[in-house]
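Protocol step 4 of 6: structure prediction from sequence.
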Amino acid sequence: MKNIKNIVIFSSLLLFGNSALLSEGIAVIDYNAIFLGTDLARERIDDLRDSSDYKELTDEAQAKDSERIKLAEKLKKDEATLSDAEKEEMLKKIQTLYQSIQLLSQQIQAKEQEVTQKLQADQAEVVQKVVNELIKAKKIKMLLNSQALLAFDRSDEKINLTPEVVDLINKEQK
């Protein structure tokens, strides 16, 4: 019951209270943007995109997608003159290409997720250190993860600490 009362009070403050008073001691960060926004992250993502494996996958996916589009356009254009068997064959080929593209997309996403997870593991300690130091230095009473919020003013530097955290991590990692 006490928790419900606190939620009602907090909600009332959010809706009707003075926003300057409420925002005092409250900050928000976006961990995904932090882990992917550092210089180290950009470097590793660039390395991935420059890798031959990644390029082969993306090139193959683009080639198959172009072929799929051309077949679909040909089917649409020549639909009246094609036999049912030819139409069915073209539709099967389009479906096969689509499935191949999906598989390639999954492989590309897996490579990107692997890099992201490695970045998170490699940077977790320094991120936590920087965040803890900022909490103390700015006397933050409540730090919220941006994914847990419906909306907030990302341009307000007093509330959104993400850019500051990324800058501090970049300095720390140099």
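Step 5 (inspection) to follow. Residues 84-137 form the longest helix (54 residues).
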